[in-house]
Amino acid sequence: MSLARRVDHYENFPVASIVCPGRWRPAVVALYHFARTADDLADEGDTAAEARLAALAALRHAVQDLWHARGEPDTVPAAWRPMLAALDAARRAHDLPLSPLEALLDAFEQDVRWSAAGRRYRDEAELLDYCARSANPIGRLLLHLAGVRDAQALRESDAICTALQLINLWQDLGQDLARGRCYVTDAARRRHGLALEADLRTVPESALAPLVLEGCQLARQHLQQGWALPGRLGARLGWELRLTLQGGLRVLERIEALHGHTRTHRPRLGGRDALVILGRALRHRAARVPATTPMRATKVPQ
């Protein structure tokens, strides 16, 4: 559940967290490297879309071969072999399901295809469907490691992962637009009087900011839906999740302090934020997402 779509690839992924149980750590690291490999194939460099899709398809086939006990194909790039070996060990140790990994690959492939075609999201339903494949599988895999299978926990995990994905999309707005990716929906453009054909890289940021802040409210609603989950998990996973939730909330506050001007100003968390997150995690309550704590507004050029 501690997922952000791109993080210095996966910066919210609990790879090095001291509260991540040690018996899960090799599996979590293996999943991280799988996700990072797929993300690099979809995002890094200037490779053509067709080649990116072919590489993602090759990765999918290699992973399917592991899960179906067909072994690692000889054509697998040497750079992938340590990642695949670790992933295979995690699969065998924890009986990991294949479907969440395939869902992640679906999302990466969609990013490549839609970017190449200049396709946009029509409405929030389409965007949430993307989040269900690009983010929610991570939470489900972590719950699987914890032996948590009940339907309510899965729903709450999905809500948290979707919220974190949405937060990351608005945090990374400028980077995504530069890559040719747009997660601002056509429906949001219409609601705020922004022309569908407008190039969001050049419109006044004051016109774009209300759409960002509206997206943050949608993220906050999803945080609310999962806010009680930490209290129903084991102590260490519960703490991991409390820190993740409070971190996501803090990024929302940073975006709001920027008045939604994240196209040119990517909000980042620093040492003081870490102390705030820790203090809030210690006081975490299941009932509701707290209202935004007032922060000093950041001056941004108009």
From TrEMBL:
Top EC category: transferase
Gene3D superfamilies: Farnesyl Diphosphate Synthase
Molecular function GO terms recorded: geranylgeranyl diphosphate synthase activity
Pfam families in alphabetical order: SQS_PSY
Top-level taxon of origin: Bacteria
Keywords from the named record: Transferase
Protein name, as recorded: Phytoene synthase
UniProt source species: Tepidimonas thermarum
